[in-house]
Amino acid sequence: MGRYFCLLAAYEIRHTAFMSDSWLDNIPSSERQRLKERFHLSEAQYEKLREKVKGPEDLKEEMKRNELLAELKFAMDAEPVLSQALRKQVQEDVRVHGLPAVLSSLHLSNGVRGAIEKGKFTIAVHPDAKTHVDQLAVVPEGKVAEALPITQKFSEQYLGQFKKAA
């Protein structure tokens, strides 16, 4: 048994001594070149990628906004009076400024448009379908799947009012 173990150990030492640590050394050079070209970015692609990277200031602002939205959502769930007041404010803004100025979505069915104009909706915090970022949205009664995002201008206005009140 001991002799077999020694032979096995000698075989492993002999065959692993010549092996490289990198797996790239085991593939043909043409394949290595193809892999290098595949992961190489042009300057335009690199700049586009750099624009998506957020700095510390941007992340702090985003965290503050997300925290404020979370507090607002909790407050609306805990205090129905706050939710009703915000709904009345949105209804008033729709009446004064018009539906396209308050809501980001321009393609509304007549039923949804009528429900919003009559005040038959709730306000909720929903993620945007495109950006997946939480934002204030109008949800028509009976159509929970149709959350219509409020424009950035009015959303920031409502969040500012909530921040002052809190």
Report what the structure shows.
By secondary structure, the chain is mainly alpha-helical. The protein has two domains: 39 residues, no CATH class; 110 residues, no CATH class. It contains eight helices and three strands, in the order H-H-H-H-H-H-H-E-E-E-H. A three-stranded antiparallel sheet has the order 1-2-3. The N and C termini lie far apart (79 Å).
* Helix/sheet category: mainly alpha
The SSE string, one letter per element, is HHHHHHHEEEH
Please count the helical segments: 8
Strand content: 5-15%
**Low-pLDDT segments, ≥5 res:** 4-9
**Adjacency order of strands in the biggest sheet:** 1-2-3
Number of domains: 2
- Based on CA atoms alone, the radius of gyration comes out at 29 Å
Overall morphology: elongated
> How far apart are the first and last residues' alpha carbons, in Å?
79 Å
**The biggest beta sheet, please?**
3 strands, antiparallel
Kindly state the number of beta strands.
3
Helix content: 55-70%
How much is the average pLDDT?
A: 79
Features:
166 residues, mainly alpha, 3 strands, 63% helix
Detail the topology: elements first, then pairings.
Elements: H1 2-16, H2 29-39, H3 43-52, H4 56-78, H5 80-97, H6 99-102, H7 110-118, E1 121-127, E2 134-140, E3 148-149, H8 152-165
Antiparallel strand pairs: 1-2, 2-3
Helix pairs in contact: 4-5
Q: What's a quick, concise take on this entry?
A:
With 166 residues, this protein is mainly alpha-helical.
